[in-house]
Amino acid sequence: MAFKRKKENIKDRIVVVSGLPRSGTSMMIKMLEAGGIVILTDHERKADEDNPKGYFEYERVKKLKDGDVDWLPQAKGKVVKIIAALVTHLPHSYEYDVIFMRRAIPEILASQRQMLIRRGEDPDKVEDEVLAVLFEKHLAQVIDWAKKQKNVRFIEVDYNDMLKDPDPLIRNINRFFGNRLDANQMASVIDPELYRQRKT
Questions:
Q1: I need a surface site. Which of 82, 163, 182, 183 has the fewest CB within 10 A?
Q2: What three-state secondary structure class fits 198?
Q3: Which CATH superfamily is domain 10-190 in?
């Protein structure tokens, strides 16, 4: 689903990939790069077993909620990863194209659990049932926020569907960006071998 579709030049806008942690945001970042959009990243967070192809994050994003927005001019015409918990802190003074990743909640929970175990952290600190309710509520709030912003164009992309049948979703994403992207290169990034914690 997409909202407020316009034809502004992508160079004047900031492309944002958002979603819950472990929802396919890193894959989408790489797809957009392959399609022709430069990533804003500082390479501070290195690839690991959970994300063997990299995270492509920009550390200053984490300070959005503290009002650190001076870096945003650098993001114009580029794509930056901003998790769902922070995307609503984006200031109104810029125009955004937001791709919001969705993934089956049980898979997100299972993926997060494995990440915590690898890091030696307690995966049972909060029950999955409680987290699932919180995640669903948070997703609804973020999507409602995006629909109401006059400076935000918004499209949802389902991670599970992308791995099953990517072509229709890639075509939709390309239309969202005015058919400016290289769809074949975007498709080449998808690696089913990295689709772990399947629950569907």
A1: 182
A2: coil
A3: P-loop containing nucleotide triphosphate hydrolases (3.40.50.300)
